[in-house]
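A.,

Following up on our hallway conversation. Structure tokens first:
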């Protein structure tokens, strides 16, 4: 793309409602420049079959906002927002290889590095405690091995994956289904702020655009596109996570799925992926082996009792599972008195070995 002027016209074109990445590229291939697209009549684009009638009307209507778009572009850097196009050297090379690569990306912080491996960790918003812990654990271990973690900054699995990477001191990147200046959900604002420093936040949607439901399937192709491998932690039979996994398959990405109980609705999607040929995600080694990375000192669940636990703590810890268990059952299995058992559970909580997920329900912490 030649010059600052062409960049301004592309930025304006990205604002035209109903014009996605694929249609913008078709217009460019037909006309040859973004300024040329701007200067053509919407009616002519409609007659040529490039735009539908409603799209042509919106196209003409947006021409009145060209100066406002130019002013907005000039002010982005002052707001801590960067804008890159496929013509810029900073644009992620992985995205150039996908169908419908975004014609413009807004980001805060930085973009994923092309030369380092990257995986996306995705799954259900309404996940189980087990799923959340596995997402965090896998992200910590993989991030510690130098792998970049990509996800969608949503509730549940996404947030746990981002948090695990941050805890390991690694880089993690959130792909939004809304404008770069909007954190959705609001409860993830702490993650949003931290990731803008320790990784990055990115989106193809215009600043101030609300998180509309139709935006999320579009952003999923970017999550998979930025990744070398996709880790599906928990997913129902029909879910956005499976959409992302299928997009990844179309893009030639490696898919890993966490197996689960056949009676668990949140494992139905993962078990289906495995039955169709996805890699079985048995732990960090499953992914590290794919990338030919050394596992280092990866801590496995059964090694937790080597961390200086005394006899009673070992007894209680050995009764627990990643699925939370009621206190009465723990007392029964351990053979300890109620007082001793509660005292030991408190110690294990303080040591970070156990988590209380709800009142008197305890589970192992990875």
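Then the amino acids I'd put at each of the 366 positions:
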């Amino acid at each position: 793309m030649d010059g600052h002027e062409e960049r301004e016209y592309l930025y304006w074109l990205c604002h035209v409602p109903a014009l996605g990445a694929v249609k913008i590229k078709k217009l460019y291939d037909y006309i040859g420049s973004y300024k040329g697209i701007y200067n053509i009549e919407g009616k002519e684009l409609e007659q040529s079959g490039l735009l539908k009638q409603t799209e042509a009307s919106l196209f003409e209507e947006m021409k009145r906002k060209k100066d406002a778009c130019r002013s907005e572009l000039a002010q982005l850097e002052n707001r801590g927002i960067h804008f890159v196009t496929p013509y810029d050297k900073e644009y992620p090379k992985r995205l150039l290889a996908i169908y419908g690569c975004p014609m413009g990306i807004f980001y805060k912080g930085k973009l994923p590095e092309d030369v380092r491996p990257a995986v996306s960790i995705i799954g259900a918003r309404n996940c189980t405690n087990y799923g959340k812990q596995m997402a965090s654990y896998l992200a910590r271990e993989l991030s510690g091995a130098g792998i970049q973690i990509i996800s969608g900054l949503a509730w549940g699995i996404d947030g746990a994956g981002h948090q695990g990477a941050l805890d390991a001191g690694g880089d993690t990147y959130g792909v939004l289904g809304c404008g770069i200046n909007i954190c959705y959900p609001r409860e993830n604002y702490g993650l949003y702020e931290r990731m803008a420093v320790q990784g990055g936040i990115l989106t193809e949607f215009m600043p101030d655009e609300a998180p509309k439901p139709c935006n999320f399937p579009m952003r999923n192709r970017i999550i998979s596109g930025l990744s070398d491998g996709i880790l599906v932690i928990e997913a129902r039979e029909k879910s956005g996570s499976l959409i992302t996994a299928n997009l990844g398959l179309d893009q030639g990405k490696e898919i890993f799925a966490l197996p689960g109980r056949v009676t668990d609705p949140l494992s139905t999607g993962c078990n289906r992926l495995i039955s169709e040929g996805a890699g079985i995600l048995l732990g960090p080694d499953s992914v590290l082996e794919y990338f030919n990375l050394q596992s280092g000192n990866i801590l496995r669940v059964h090694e937790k009792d080597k961390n200086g636990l005394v006899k009673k703590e070992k007894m209680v810890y050995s009764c627990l599972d990643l699925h939370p268990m009621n206190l009465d059952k723990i007392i029964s299995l351990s053979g300890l008195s109620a007082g001793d058992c509660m005292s030991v559970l408190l110690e294990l909580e303080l040591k970070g070995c156990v988590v209380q997920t709800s009142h008197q329900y305890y589970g192992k912490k990875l």
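The mean pLDDT is 90. Curious whether your intuition agrees with the design.

B.
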